[in-house]
Design brief:
408 residues; mainly alpha; single chain
Length: 408
């Protein structure tokens, strides 16, 4: 049975890789020098040439990194690399929690070492070449260490807690594990901007002036109570602009990137915020949270059924089942289900984006939002004409062309 399981795992990984490459190929074939009429004014000739270079550079880089990752994961399975890492962890610890922490810690460190050269190249060569990068070597190094610390504390803490629950509760593991992870998700959703973001970026309240007055006037018209409006120093790392909405209830917060403020007019910024407020008004945030929690519950229940399965361990070359080994196998076997659920979530997310755009449109901001979307696409050299299949599988937002047509 475990031999069949091994080849099922390999088949899933191969099919995922093939699907990714087919979608990339379709996207490349759909990339054209001719743009639809609605977005022809986004790029002038020089800017569009730069956009084409950026697209093909990232495609080549993605092909190299994707193929390299696929080869590494294949080697891990065919050479029983997970069993080797497990044996190292067991040489240094005897308690199941410590063994699991060492196991995942070794995998994480190895992955970081392998991927670091690619990340450096993308940041300081590709992004630098196209004038996006603002990250200094000092900031990059600091980010790596902060990321490592966060993964160690949060990731390690969550793994240890789940194993403790698994050892203590038996058949009720899925229920308690689901509850714990759901609570952590809600907590992080509410306090992410307060606790995590300050470790990497500075946030400050938007100063009084024309922009804040315009935003507050719109919030009053929309019946949206806004107490937390912040500006983040996104220009510390990139010239690309963004804005996001986080939290709910008294902890809801709107954050504007300083690059967004410098790129758009006051009316266009208000239109972007109207879109974000539209998500809140249409209860999209809560709906997506509920769906995420339900998905997590199903995942934990199925996981609880296979955590003691010896064939899972044998498929990776180990003699006895363990939490950390079996969860690796489960993660891969669950991948097709996750892909299907992801497609469904993306379909709902794209529908939500249209509704949020329509909310801004209902306040007479259709033109301003359309202009803002064009500027943001231009400044980030976005692909304006991706293949429909690529959009279906991968896009959580409609394309710029689709959004502009909807706004009209």
């Amino acid at each position: 049975m475990y031999t069949v399981l091994f080849w099922i795992i390999i088949a899933i990984l191969v099919l995922e890789f093939i699907l990714e490459k087919v979608l990339d190929r379709l996207n490349q074939k759909n990339f054209s020098t001719q743009l639809p009429d609605e977005v022809k004014d986004v790029y002038d000739a020089e800017k569009y040439k730069k956009h084409q270079e950026y697209f093909w550079t990232n495609q080549r880089f993605g092909t190299i990194t994707g193929t390299f990752s696929f080869v590494v994961i294949m080697l891990m399975f065919f050479l029983f690399g997970f069993h080797f890492v497990d044996s190292i962890a067991q040489n240094f610890a005897t308690h199941p929690i410590l063994i699991a922490l060492l196991f995942f810690g070794i995998l994480y460190i190895c992955n970081e070492i392998i991927s670091l050269p690619f990340e450096i190249y993308h940041t300081f060569v590709i992004e630098q070449r196209f004038e996006f990068n603002k990250t200094t070597p000092g900031t990059f190094i600091a980010d790596q260490f902060k990321g490592l610390a966060l993964t160690t504390v949060l990731g390690g803490g969550i793994v240890a807690l789940l194993i403790l629950i698994y050892q203590s509760t038996g058949e009720y593991f899925w229920l308690l594990g689901w509850g714990v992870m759901g609570g952590i998700s809600i907590f992080m959703m509410m306090f992410y901007s307060n606790l995590i973001v300050p470790l990497f970026n500075k946030q400050k309240p938007l100063e009084a002036g024309e922009l804040r007055d315009a935003i507050e006037d719109f919030c009053k018209k929309a019946g949206f109570k806004l107490d937390n409006l912040y500006v983040i120093d996104g220009s510390k790392r990139s010239t690309k602009a963004n804005a996001y909405f986080s939290g709910f209830g008294p902890k809801k917060r709107i954050v504007l990137y300083d690059t967004l403020i410098s790129s758009l007019t006051t009316e266009e910024i208000v239109a972007v915020l109207a879109h974000e407020i539209g998500h809140y008004k249409k209860k999209h945030t809560r709906t997506m949270l509920v769906l995420s929690l339900l998905n997590s519950g199903v995942l934990f229940y199925i996981l609880s059924l296979v955590l003691d399965n010896r064939d899972f361990a044998l498929a990776l070359g180990c003699s006895e089942p363990s939490f950390h080994i079996n969860i690796i196998v489960f993660g891969i076997l669950y991948a097709p289900i996750s892909t299907l659920l992801g497609i469904g979530i993306n379909i709902l997310s794209r529908k939500n984006e249209y509704e949020a755009d329509n909310f801004a449109k209902s306040y007479g901001l259709a033109v301003a939002l359309g202009n803002a979307l064009k500027k943001l696409s231009k400044d980030s050299l976005s692909n304006l004409n991706p293949h429909p299949a690529y959009v279906f599988f991968s896009y959580s937002h409609p394309t710029l062309l689709q959004r502009l047509r909807n706004l009209k």
